[in-house]
Amino acid sequence: MRILFVCLGNICRSPAAEGIFSHLLGRAGLDQKITCDSAGIVGYNKGEGAYPKMKKVALQRGYDLTSISRPVKPERDFEAFDLIIGMDDQNIRDLNRMAPTGKLKEKIRKMTDFCANRRYTSVPDPYYGETRDYELVIDILEDACEGLIREITENVKAS
Asked: Is-catalytic flag, 13?
């Protein structure tokens, strides 16, 4: 299974989701069966690593963010990935607009759909925020990534 995490610029939320999810996959022994990547709606930050504030907060939680920013490539990504997960409603609208066919739109989900704690309906963009805003993003992503792994493993057991 292949999963793509998407946010606006691919320097805060989606690389954090990729790093957290990869870490949790390794801990669960699923890293050989499930892989992930991240991308941005826009390509402004193409070739850059995660934003320094996000990297610092993630590292304090034990997550090393090593991904390099790239834009979504609709003609390739919608075929290559089983799930394409946006961080907020605007990301979801943009992904639906980018989907090459209506059938491929079925792959699009919102990150907070996987949260056990339903307190948040999106992963807020922390870019202009303080350290606590980045910490909140990590909190939400940890919950959502654990929920995503749970949903995947439950679906495999059911089939």
From this structure: yes
